[in-house]
Amino acid sequence: MGFLHQIRVAMFSFWPVWIPMTAAAAVFVACAVGLTATPIAHKPLVSFIRTGQRDRAALSPR
Amino acid sequence: MTLLGLFLAGYIAMILAWENFTYHDNSIFTLYTLRGHDIGPPIMPWLGRFFPLGFQEFNLIRHFTDTITGYHAFRIAQLLIFSWILLTLDEELSVVARAALVILALITPSILTSFAWLIYHEANVLLCIVCLALFVKRFEQTQSVGWAVAAAVCAQIMIYYKETASLLLLGFAVSRLVLRCRSTNARSWDYSRLWDKESRLDLCLAFLAVLFLLYYLGLMLPHPTMKYAEDVRRPLAELFLGYIKLDLLALLFVGIVLSRTYLIVRCKVAPSLLWDGLAFGGVACFVGYLGLGFPTASKHYVAPVDLIALLYVGRLASLSAAKMHLWGKLAALALLLAVVVQDVSLSAFRVFEQKSVIHAKGEIAQVVQARYQNAAGEIRRLFFPFASPYMIMEFASYLDYRGVPVEGVMDAAGALNSVSVVTRVMTKDGPCVGYRNLICHAAATPDPGDLVIVLPDDNQSLADVTSYRAQGELLFSYEPGIPQWVYPFIRSLPIVSLDVTKMELRDGWLHASVTVWK
User: Fold this and answer.
1) A26 contact B CB<8A
2) Number of domains in chain B
3) Which of B148, B157, B211 lies at the smallest CB-CB distance from A33?
4) Domain boundaries, position B481
5) CB distance from B152 to chain A under 8 Å?
6) A25 contacts in B (CB within 8 Å)?
7) B197-216 pLDDT, tens per residue?
8) Half-sphere exposure of B96 (CA within 13 A, CB side)
9) What are the chain B neighbours of A30 within 8 Å (beta carbons)?
10) What residues form DSSP beta bridges with B203?
11) Is residue B342 part of a domain?
12) Residue A28 lies in a domain
């Protein structure tokens, strides 16, 4: 009960909760859409494909 | 574009005309920010309210200005950014169509009140909605992480300005995920699309909305209540009737979203993730207000719904106008006309009422202030024969800010030479409202020497107003700028009886006066 009460009191002090929460959300979104968006496997492989194969690969459906 | 520029210039002039801090709920400024105090984040579990970013912008603004124009400058800047984003957001529409949508949006009563009245947080929510749409669109075009982060921060700000905005965000994000995963051709589901870049952003937005709801529940859970809505709850049929009379656009929007959903499910039209997502968010917000059960039609609460409705319906109508049959065009035109007539009449009424009330109260305060200063503090009592305790509190707070100390406004004991507030509508002495210290004294009649004040929004019969004027020395009187013969016409409009005053307008509506009682 005491612990839950302390959590509720902390929730009432809005700014110390909201600012880190927003900063964390921004970092999380950046990681979610950015860092994992370019898998390492994709880029190096391109250089090993010969020109003709690359063209065909570009046309194939993904 | 010239027309839009002129419209915006006139709109801004309208916002600033006759302004002062006397309108409803402006005591939050006259008691706090204008006296150098910050407003705390509005977290009120006992009422079921949690909109902690509400009013927080004024804690910053107060460091730069203490004038009403300065306070409005912030809203005007928001208005201009809002208009600019609307002009650039939807490149599929012609510039003329976009400019027309901006004008239509700004004459919608709920949106107009959001920008023209300082205390409504919906102006912030409206700006966040158009920013969110712009950022999401730019992210989809460029795949840039910056736009995704901007969209998330914007969404995070929006939901902490208004509780129901979380429903809007949740509806937006979840519907986009569903629409993306549903393959249009095969009527099957492609769950691998959940891990697309765009889907990951939508998942994050949905997560923010869920986090807000958990925060909200964590605060409310020990004693869950929706007291602020329960006090004014109305049956569903009455709410629908209110929307038909006051906010046809919102109902039209819901009908169109439902029919378009059917077409999307039947794979007859391809969904637009941005616009259909926004539409589902708007419907979620609308359903949330219906669930709360208090009459919101055309009020500032539904400004986000009205904005999305206008953009969505306007966009569909504009894009499909060329393909419509003659009867379809006529029907669309008739509906547009009905919406415009409804919006213009209600907005004109609201602006007229608001400006008259502000003007009259400002003049009354000036008269009382001059009388107080000239009489060297000999004025002891202000008698309000008709005003509600809430209106008395608001006006007394303004008087106190103007330099007429009122008993209990700043401290319960009352300053030296402070005036006390007396009212006929209370049966015993006590605080005018539960959340302020101002004391209302009860008395059936004024004493000799009292200043008897009839406020413009008392809405009494002219005979009652005149009887108080006749028994003393009239210092000031105010009459509205419309002739009496127009009143029956205004009364006949459904907008008046249902929304604005909750009762019929009387012939003394907007009449005000200050009298020294003999």
Assistant:
1) yes
2) 2
3) B148
4) 348-517
5) yes
6) 152-153, 156, 204, 208
7) 899 999 999 999 999 999 99
8) 2
9) 145, 148-149
10) none
11) no
12) yes
Whether residue B293 is found in the same domain as residue B384: no
Cβ of residue B200 closer than 8 Å to a chain A Cβ: yes
- Is A39 contained in some domain? yes
A25/B156 CB distance under 8 A: yes
Q: Are B64 and B36 in contact (CB under 8 A)?
A: no
List, in order, residues 6 or more apart from B49 with CB less than 8 Å away. B42, B43, B163, B228
Same domain, B235 and B130: yes
Overall residue count recorded for chain B in this entry: 518
Query: How many domains does chain A fold into?
Result: 1
Give the whole-angstrom CA distance, residue B133 versus residue B168: 12
What count of Cα atoms within 13 Å lies in the side-chain half-sphere of residue B405?
Answer: 14
The model's pLDDT over B282-328, given as tens digits with 9 standing for 90+, comes to 999 999 999 988 887 778 999 999 999 999 999 999 998 888 888 98
Show the tokens assigned to B417.
Answer: 């030479």
- Establish if A24 touches chain B: CB-CB under 8 angstroms: no
Taking the Cβ of residue B156 and every Cβ of chain A, the question of whether any pair is shorter than 8 Å is answered with: yes
Q: What is the pTM of this model?
A: 0.90
Kindly state whether residues B308 and B360 are assigned to the same domain.
no
CB contacts, 8 Å: B52 with chain A: 14, 18
Assess if residue A5 is contained within a domain: no
pLDDT tens-place string over residues B216-238: 998 888 777 777 777 788 889 98
* Whether A30 and B149 lie within 8 Å, measured CB to CB: yes
Looking at the complex, report in whole angstroms how far the Cα of residue A43 sits from the nearest Cα belonging to chain B. 17
Residue B325: φ, ψ to 5° = -75, 170
In a domain, A41, yes or no: yes
